Structures are given as structure tokens and as C-alpha cells.
Amino acid sequence: MKNILIPTDFSLCAMRAMDLGMALANFFNAKVHFFTTIDDDKNGEKLNALMENKNSKNVELVSKINNLFKKWKIEADVMNVEVSFVCSTQKLLPALQSYVADHDIDFVVMGSHGHSGVQGFYLGSNCQKVVRALQVPVFIIKEKLKRQEFKNVVFASSFKDEEMTSYIQFLDFIKRFKPDVVHLLGINTTCINKAGCRAPEIDEMEEAMKKYQKMCDFAMCKKHVYMDSLIEPGIRHFSENIDADLIVISNHNRHPVKRIFTGSTVEALVQNTSLPVLSIDFVDDKIIKKVDENELKKII
Questions:
Q1: DSSP 3-state assignment of 236?
Q2: Do 36 and 171 lie in a common domain?
Q3: Which of the residues 5, 24, 140, 259 has an alpha carbon 20 to 30 A from that of 79?
Q4: What would the mean pLDDT of 33-43 be, rounded to a whole number?
Q5: Range(s) of the domain holding residue 259
Q6: pLDDT in tens, 99-132
Q7: How high is the pLDDT of residue 121?
Q8: Reported pTM
Q9: pLDDT score at 252
Q10: What beta strand segments (E) does 9-123 contain?
Q11: Do 25 and 97 contact (CB within 8 A), yes or no?
């Protein structure tokens, strides 16, 4: 991890994302890219006019932004973290996509929702759009972390062979934090409230989990197939029941699991749980190239 992007609207959730992103940058010796945008045409026009006219009555807006950035720069210097600041007048998603591609961003940290205290800025529900639009890991934080360590972690997946790439990237990230337990979690909705039910897909999922379990050699790794009426409540209920520090979700744009673990499921999960969520999409060629194919052949 070399470049961490933190989109911000200066809301409370965004400030929590800033704290986490800065801590991760310090831990991984990475650079932080703070990114904010006015994704409203009128606001964009105001900012452009302000840049040309120092007498504008809206000068207070940019003054607040600059003051916040200066404050963050001081904090970054104390933590010995390299930072850059970008304010864009483009629409949020295309601006982020371009920035990620142009600056080799490999990790994103952002707050889940919340309107800004600085007029004209917001992330709000755009958080979920960012998860879908960017093919790099996105760490979504809603509440302030009890502790900036991840000792009890859930990896939710359908555990197909093609998802191994995202799992390897997850392992590379999480092993740095020396977790005590990694929970491999699959959700089954077929056998909920059916005594004695044993659907074939449960056996298939448990068998598939064995390959994943073998790779987790730095912590206790447990397999779980949890029964619930829907995918999102299943992930949430299990994770909250075990007091997890982090939920990690495997995404794939071209695989049916994308329909399971993205869109409304991620949105509902972030909305309904206070736990942080890390979404990893494994379509990106940059991620695939990191996988040792010989190692995969031995396991698969």
C-alpha cells in the first residue's frame, strides 16, 4: 500500500475516515491524498468565480477549506506522513476515477454518510457509488473505531475459486495487524427455520472454504456457514454477535457474487452496523498480477 485516497466533505464521518486513513498511512508508510469536490454545477461555478475574484462574498468557503487543509498538514507532519490536497469542481465519481488512475491509488478510506458542515460539499450516499465505481479496496467507516487494530475479523464471501485473488489481497493487508481470529463467513438462506435442513450448497461452501483456510497461517482461522433470511442481515448478525472489529467483503463485477455483496447489500450493511467495512473488488488487473499463480495451483 503506497497511496491512500481519502475523499472528504469535512463531515464527522469524513473526519473519522481521515483519522483512520492517517493512521494506516503511518503504519504502511504510505502517502495520503485528500480529495474534495463540489459536485454541484452552481457550487462549481461559485468556486471558479471565487478563484478569479477575491472580493467574492463566498471567500469564506475556500478560507475554511484552506484552514482545514493547513491543520491536517500540521497533523500529518507530526505523524511523518506525506500528504497532498486536491479540490475539484468535477462531478465526484468521474473525478475520483480519474484521480485513482492517474495517481496509482491502491486504497480508499471514506466515511459512510453525513452532510458537511462546510456548505456546498457532501459525500452522502455517494459512498456506495464509490464502492461500485472504483476497482481498488474501499474502507468504509461509520463510527469512531474503539481501537485502531483488527483482532477479530470477518471475511464474507461465496468462496469461489476466482475470489482467491481478493482473499490474497485481504490476507496481505490484515496480517500486518496480527489478528487473533479470522472468520471465513458464508451465508445460507435456504435452510433458515428448517429443522434438519442440509442443502447441498452448504457442503459445497464448506468444502471450498478449506482452500481459503489453508492460506491463513498467521492466525486462527475459523469456517462458518451462517443461516439467515437474507445476506446482509446474516453478515451483520454474525459479525455483531462475535464482536468483530472489521467486516471484509469480496466483490466481483462479472460474477453473480457482485449482485450479492454489493449495491443494496453493502449500503444496508453500512447503514445498519457500526462496524467498519472493507470492500475488495478483484477485477483490477493490478490486483490479479500480484497473485502467485503457482501458489494458487497448489492450493486449488
A1: helix
A2: no
A3: 140
A4: 67
A5: 152-299
A6: 999 999 999 999 876 444 444 444 556 677 787 7
A7: 46
A8: 0.81
A9: 58
A10: 31-37, 83-88, 107-111
A11: no
3-state helix, strand, coil in the chain (%, to 5): 45, 20, 35
Do 45 and 126 reside in the same domain of the chain? yes
Of the three residues 121, 141, 161, the one that is the final residue of a domain is 141
Q: Is residue 43 part of a domain?
A: yes
For 116-125, how does the pLDDT look when each residue is reduced to its tens digit (9 = 90+)? Answer: 444 444 455 6
Name residue, grid cell 490479479: 288
Is 176 found in the same domain as 80?
A: no
Any domain includes 158: yes
Cα(256)–Cα(235) distance, rounded to whole angstroms? Answer: 17
Half-sphere exposure of residue 10: CA atoms within 13 angstroms, side-chain side: 20
Whether 168 shows a pLDDT value over 50: the answer reads: yes
| 135 and 25 fall within a common domain | yes
> Where among 120, 141, 162 does a domain terminate?
141
**How far is it, in rounded angstroms, from Cα 275 to Cα 260?**
19
SS3 state of residue 248: strand
